[in-house]
Amino acid sequence: MKKATLLATAIAGLSFSGASMADVTAFIEMPLTASQEAVTSPTPTPAPVSNGYGRITALYDNTTKVLTYNVNWKLEGDAVPRTHEAGNNHIHGPAGVGTAAPIVIPFPDLPLTNSGNVSGSITLTAEQAAAIETDLIEGRMYYNIHSTLYSSGEIRAQLISNGANATGAVYQNSELTLSNVLVPGLEGAQAYDAVLNSATGTFVLTTATPLR
User: Fold this and answer.
1) Cis ω for the linkage preceding 94 (within 30 of 0)
2) Beta carbons within 8 Å of 193's beta carbon, 6+ residues apart
3) How far apart are the first and last CA of the chain?
């Protein structure tokens, strides 16, 4: 069965110039959810009571230091993005799942709408790149959106890069395999393959637990 790479999917929706593929780290369709806002460190904080959701896809070129991104979101009820310190959406780090960290890269403000989709790019300064590049590439950064309901953050996405061998959903022998599913609250690696079995006509999760 032919497997389409997630990187190819990302490139179709984003544009960037002058980068060789070897220099680009891809974060494809990272899920934005309220559950990821629950942290145990440095101060235990429960997740917001929110059905907000979204996705962020980003490509980071470690030669030009350009981060190209696309974000789509839907917040709870009639909430809209709200300014918190340096804008209403940011990258924080360094931090793994379940850990809070300071803002390191502010993004241009999202429009004040309950849902939306934006694309853009940010060029990191030499100082920013030196401070965060390794942590960004190795999955120790997260992106979140602050809202009028939850000023400290309503929905969050851990930025886990998709490796060169990452694949899209594969259906074979009555099983659907979803690669790079994010699982909060587990120690160790945060990316897993989720396998759903349809032998009985209904998909049943047999390994891992998808975030949303």
Assistant:
1) yes
2) 177, 178, 179, 180, 181, 207, 208
3) 26
- Pick from 61, 80, 85, 83: which is nearest to 11 by CA? 61
* Whole-Å CA distances, 176 to 100, 159, 190: 33, 24, 20
User: Tell me, what's the pLDDT at 211?
Assistant: 46
Q: Encoding tokens for residue 161?
A: 């890069």
Q: Where are the beta strands (DSSP E) in the chain?
A: 24-33, 53-61, 66-74, 89-92, 103-106, 115-123, 142-145, 155-158, 170-172, 175-182, 191-197, 204-207
Entry pTM: 0.72
Give the strand pairing for 142-145 and 155-158. antiparallel
**CA 161, CA 100: separation in Å to the nearest integer?**
19
Rounded CA separation 91/205 (Å):
31
Structure tokens at 45: 């904080």
104 confidence band (pLDDT: 50, 70, 90):
very high
Residues 6 or more apart in contact with residue 60 via CB below 8 angstroms: 24, 25, 27, 66, 67, 68, 136, 137
Report residue 32 as tokens: 């934005």
What amino acid occupies position 141?
M
Q: Which of 157, 211, 202 is nearest to 184 (CA)?
A: 211
